[in-house]
Amino acid sequence: MAETEGRSAGATIVGHAPLISNIGGLPFGFGTVPNIYFNGFNLNLTNADSNLLLLLDGQPQAKLSMSFTTAKTLMAYLTEMMEKLEGATARKIMKTDEIEAGLKKLQESEVK
Q1: Number of C-alpha atoms within 13 angstroms, CB side, residue 49?
Q2: Residues near 67 by Cβ (< 8 Å), separated by ≥ 6?
Q3: Element (H, E) at 76
Q4: Is residue 77 exposed (0-12), middle (13-18) or buried (19+ Cβ within 10 Å)?
Q5: Cα(first)–Cα(last) distance of the chain, in Å?
Q6: Residue 93 near residue 104 (C-beta atoms within 8 A)
Q7: How far is CA 57 from CA 35, 41, 93, 104, in A?
Q8: pTM of whole model > 0.85?
Q9: Contacts (Cβ under 8 Å, ≥6 apart) of 40
């Protein structure tokens, strides 16, 4: 079984099941940590914080507030994680705006 170690804010992959760890090194969903699924988000900045509103089908699910440093670090780790996944699978993960553009093209071609 292949095993690679990741940073506490990164991913640890054991076999085929990825284990994403929080700062304390415990798996998400362990104990009383809520499990929140979202398929959209809104971003907001104040003069002191950045805010991330998590949406499920357009409805607010949770609000995350963080420092600029934390937001920048999160962005870097998410980018690194997606680049590793895309490299390992040789597949580009599309962003929602790319999917939306494709769906619009599909809809336009069906109307003709």
Answers
A1: 6
A2: 49, 50
A3: helix 68-89
A4: middle
A5: 52
A6: no
A7: 17, 10, 20, 18
A8: no
A9: 54, 55, 56, 57, 58, 96
Q: Please state, in angstroms and rounded to a whole number, the distance separating the CA atoms of residues 43 and 64.
A: 10
**DSSP-assigned states of every residue in 3-50:** EE---TTSEEEETTEEEEB-TTSPBTTSTT------SEEEEEE-SS-E
pLDDT in tens, 11-68: 443 334 444 444 455 555 566 778 899 999 999 999 999 999 999 999 999 999 999 9
Q: Which two tokens stand for residue 106?
A: 């599909």
What residue has token string 């805010």? Answer: 51
The type of residue at 16 is H
